[in-house]
Structures are given as structure tokens and as C-alpha cells.
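Following up on my earlier thread - several people asked me to post the actual chain instead of describing it. Fair enough. Here it is, all 172 residues.
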Amino acid sequence: MTDQVLDILKLVLLALLYLFFARVLWAVWSEVRQPANARGAVDFAQQQPASAQPSAGPPPIAAGKRSAKAAKGRGGTPGRLVVLEPKERRGTTFAIGTEVGIGRDADNTVVITDDSYISGHHARVVLTDGNVVVHDLGSRNGTYLNGTHLSQPLTVHPGDRIQVGYTVLEAQ
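Reply from S.P.:
Thanks for posting it. Predicted structure:
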């Protein structure tokens, strides 16, 4: 082979290498600029056939004991849980009575049916001795308080965030 052919092959290889790096950077940038809660999120309600979807119905988060305007807590004790994520349900409030159950089953206070990472009875928020305590009920994917995985019941303070699956609740 002549020197000219080798030089051309070097330039082609260099151009392909630059294209490869550009593609990798584009893929990383696309993943980083996407919201964290949307990465890997799958909405199973949208994957059902059109005949299986109800034409009009309640949103996937329902509440048996839901309060339309639950009062904020006083004296350092939260009085309600407010949905922060997903955006479609932001602002939904649940009063913290003696016990708030969170899960997929209909007998929970906070029923989340469209999240496959939520167990039937996932977590429980209990008011005991003037303190609000969150318990993980042995769920497979865990319950998080301020980003920390719960391994034991912990006290919840106003402003703390409880995450179950893709749903984030703030104690107020």
C-alpha cells in the first residue's frame, strides 16, 4: 500500500472515532437532562389495550379517608402528607390521622394503582405519642425517608419526604 492510502485510512479511522465519541456524549447528555423521575418510568395504565382502558374514571391515586383540605401540622408534628411526584397528582393531600396506609390495595388510605414498584401494603405512617413515624411493611422495593432507605421505623418531621416507588410525599 502506498503512503497516501495509509494516510487516508488514518483520517477515516480518526473521523469514525470522533463520530463514536460524539454519539456517546449525545446519549449521556440525553439521559442527564431528562427528569430523574421519568428515567425508566413505565406507565402501565397507558400500555393496556384501548378496550381495557376506562373512558373516564378516578385518577390512579385514590383515597378512602382523603381530606380535601387537610390541615398542616403544628408544633413540629406533621398533620398531612402532600403528593409532590408524579406531577399529574401534585398537591393531593392526605390527613395524618392515627394511621395512613400506603399501597396498591384498596384498603389503604393512599391507594397507588399505576406504579409497579409499590406493594399491596407498602408503608404505614402512624401517629404515636405525638410523633409521626413511618414504617416500611416489608416491601420488595423499599420505602425511603429523605433519600435514605428505611431499615427501621423513623420519626417524620415537617418537610421530610417519603418515597414509595415513583411517588414522593412531603410531610407538612
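The CA atoms of residues 38 and 166 lie 9 Å apart. That should answer part of your original question.
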